[in-house]
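pasting for the record
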Amino acid sequence: MKENTLYIALEQSVLVNNPCITIGDISSIFCKDKDIDNRVRELQVTHLPGNEKSQIVITVMKLIEIINGEFENLDVEAIGNSETIVYYDSGRKNRTMMQKVKVGVLMLLAFFGTAFSIMSYNEDSGTLGLLEELYILFTGEATEVLTPALAIGITSYCVGLAIGMIIFFNHGINKKFGDDPTPLQVQMRLYEQDVNKCIVIDSSRTKKTLDVN
């Protein structure tokens, strides 16, 4: 009968800054025997190439194989995910001018793309015509030109639209108005899960997953 039980749990994905990956870097470990616990954490799984960024899929079966190779009388129980995606980032902070230019271009595309989308929606929904109807309703005067009062109404609509978006997305510059995740964060997490599933499937099909022999 095996004397000790070690529990190991994998997250869906982890980020590491050291190319030499150990079991403790990519999983949660628990064992009543603290000596075994610490030794398992230090077991090396693989060593990534010296790229600034890379990724690899590692299965829990591979970790169990490594642990059983070091400890004969140890019962290993896996909890959670059957594989994890390890994202490696060297953590270097230096950014080239080209990278800064790319970030600037992406920011401009996002800004003008969003502005164009909003203007297209307003044009399709006839927002300007609605504002003109509201102007006639409240003033009783028909207008064929942009009067100061109508301009104030259009400006108020634009300001209200911006405030509404900030409240809906639950962000205002660097201030968050609540503890709940924002709609944008929820969508980003769903997107991240879909990306992780795709990476696991592609890695399995291309035989690049680090699995048992």
